User: Fold these one by one.
Assistant:
Number 1:
Amino acid sequence: MRQGARKAAVAITSIAAVAALALAGCTPSTDPDDDSPGSDSTGGANGPITDAQREEALSTPTDLTFWTWVPDVQDQVDMFEKQYPEINVTVENVGQGLDHYSKVRTASQAGTGGPDVVQLEYQFISSFAQTGELLDLTPYGAADLESQYVPWVWKQVLSNDEVLAIPQDSGPMGNLYREDIMQAAGVTEPPATWADYKTAAEKVRANTSSYISNMAPSQGAGWLGLLWQAGVKPFGYDGGEKVTIDVNSAEAKDVMAYWQDMIQNDLVSIDPDFNDEWYQGLNQGKYAGWLTAAWAPVFLSGAAKDTSGLWRAAPLPQWDTSTPASGNQGGSADAVLKTTKNPIAAYELAKWINNAQEPALLFTTQQSFFPTAISVLEDPVFVDQKSDFYGGQEVNKLFAEISTTVDTDWQWLPFMEFAYSSFNETFGAAVAAKGDLAAGLDAWQDALVDYAEQQGFTVNG
Amino acid sequence: MTTAIQRKQHLVAYGFILPFFAVFATMFIAPLAYSGYLSFFANKLVGGVKYVALGNYVRAFQDPAFLFGLGRTALILFIQVPIMLGLALFFALALDSGRARGSKAVRLLIFLPFAVPGVVAVLMWGYIYGQDFGLTGQITRALGLPPTNFLSDQLILFSIMNIVTWAFVGYNMIILYAALKSIPSELHEAAEIDGASQWRLAWSVKIPMIRPAIFLTIIFSVIGSFQIFNEPKLLVEIAPTAITQGFTPNFYAFNVAFVNQDINYAAAIAFLLGFVIMIVSYVVQLSMQKREVRW
């Protein structure tokens, strides 16, 4: 989860917390029946938007607000404003991770003061869809974009046949490793299977002072990505009141039995990630590899500058080499809030910066995002890029190939904030204690089911 | 006539305190009342808002996360607070004795941590506690000892107590030191002429004289320990599995509201915590008053 890197430590005094708590509550309770898509003010309820309406909206002077944590996104917004001079966009960074989401929720429930367009990670889209805060983009023409995107990514922005966001970047997973350490350990090729990976891990432990990789106990999105690769389907959500929670299935336990063996034999380290110790570990060769997402190659070249040229990229080791598979970790999209007064212009903003070739390509070269649009994934500017950090390897090409192997049917729960936080307390704690990971999954299952029932969902019904 | 003047004076007096009351009412009383109101409802993700009377409070009493959080703060109260206040008293007496060289610089150094912002402090402690590349990691490696993970489930509470002690010793020391300075000097002089040692002087003259200040620091510390929030909120970044949602009750209220999307239950927890603090503070105060009467 990339947000982990961005999460700034924020000091909030207890007083401020209580005050914020009261403020957050200072809104009239919303009607329970918030499911009806597109309220009448949005104009979306009366069928698709016509070209004339679009033309009019885009040539009328309009102010939009865009809440996002993406660095330098102003450049893409400037391009949009050049394209549509009548639209004035204000970009605001209201925080990252949880800070961002709780502010979006607060503003959205208050009905005023919120943004028109908002950045959302894929894993949180159903959480916001559940509370009825996102505008269905189908009447604005979003459904026509389907063929332009990688299929598994497109499924991530759908809920109940509604398109709720325009994809921006994604994170298909691969294996980044230190070629020099691997060679010192006597591993000449990147492990093709998980069995090979264990053999390689043993060699790395025996012949060097490194670990083959670090499996951070609290990296919920990364662990889920590994389940995703194995074809496990821990979550399901029908867009209404029914959720499926199956995190302790036999398949999930099989995957975790592998990792329990690796952890208990001290073949991988289990340090928390995205903190100073971890950065030191990457720079000083404590970790000889990192099972991570497609946004990581560029992130790593900044975080572990000292090791430039020593890294290589490979696909994840496989369970079954005849059907290569990968999972996804991270990535986000731009959604339009129902409270917007200018839904057409807001939709065009969300769409244009991610869908027009020029800004979308800029995301890959400037923000180093891994693209989701097929045209960008095939663009030579992106694909043929060679990276010195990876010894001149064409890393983008590799991940573009991996992206096609990601399973399309992965779903999220409509309460991922809680799910990740309870993940840390149950499964994450079991990893940190080098304990029984199957029991950790059982405990997580219980916590999720309890919460879902407490919140009124029908679980596994 | 006099009543008219008195009435006018009263009016003016109210005029002076009006700005305070306006802010107090809108920024403190109103949110408090509103959270109290919220705590009687439940807002579910499915099903919406419902009046549940004391349901949220009943739930809190059966919620292991909340109860363990309270237990943890009780541990802090019984272990960390005595250590911290003992140290603060020791430093205050040492500085007051006038025997220590460079006492002004020492006073400043001990007080300094209180002025360090929480974010900076946690970066610093994150480095000190780091088991591979941190300070303790380097020391244990140099001594050939196995590395200790101060951020593990077992040790995190003590690591936090250590940080809290570090941050607040100086604050309490200043309160006690100021009280010591106000003791009339004839008292020490008389005791010294009578041949009392520094220890005797501290035990029989100074400590009894500053007892009200000591009580004050105890009350502050009791309230402070129940309200611990910054340390877990900041350390959760480097000890994500050791610090649970309900690590302390205050941190739990925050998480319930902003992670679990359950503002109503969070309001109930905040109120319960307030009551617990009131009761404990009252008990502490009562037991002190009894002793004061004897003295």
Number 2:
Amino acid sequence: MILEWVRFILAGGCFAVGIVFMILSVFGVNRLHHALNRMHAAAMGDTLGILFVFLGLMLIRGFSMSSLKLFLVILFFWVASPVSGHMISRLEAMTDEDLGEMAVLEFDAIGADGEESPIAGEEELEHESV
Amino acid sequence: MTEQAYDILLLGSLIILAVLIIASMIRSFLGPGISDRIIAINMTGTMVITAIAILSVFLEEDYLVDVCLIYAMISFLGVVVLCKVYTGVYLQKKKLKPDFGAIADNLTHQGEECRERDVRDNKGRHAAGEEDGK
């Protein structure tokens, strides 16, 4: 009896962690703006979310054939998800003509309030070199 | 006693997954670009697979796990084929260089234009700010 409850608590913990990862991935995909950032959030649900939910299901099913198939699904997802992510990122990089607008390095030079110009960093660099 | 607890656990996670599936379907309707839609559809497929696997334990039907495995394979195939098709259509329409040539074009030309525009805008904004200060 106690052993069954221990198993239930373990399975419930795995379920909760997996569902939380999936909620975070859906929240990230709806919240972020660029497709490359959205992919970063979606990959989390593809790997960690499905791992923990299926681990909970395997704990419930015990040592059986269907548990082995669930493990096979996890294995397939961990192989297939990076490949599909690579394809989607290549599609995005090839078709997005505003790819240069994603100014990652210049954001620090501009600052949050936009007071300094992006050239400020370069001027400082030239000054240091002189 | 434990069976009721398992039922509540599985039903609760199924209900949460249904809400998440609806949310990611809404994102796939709204997504501005084609890659946003493909990402949302891929995530919807992941959650449907999870729901089918939970149903296989909830209904105690082992064959639903096989359905789940086949669904995962077809979802992966669909994503790969959609990416290939849309890349080919775009490159044919724009008559661009394939593969990394297109990425380099997107990065360099657009980047230079953006930088020039940023410099111009910043100069304009600084002049306006000085006038406002005076």
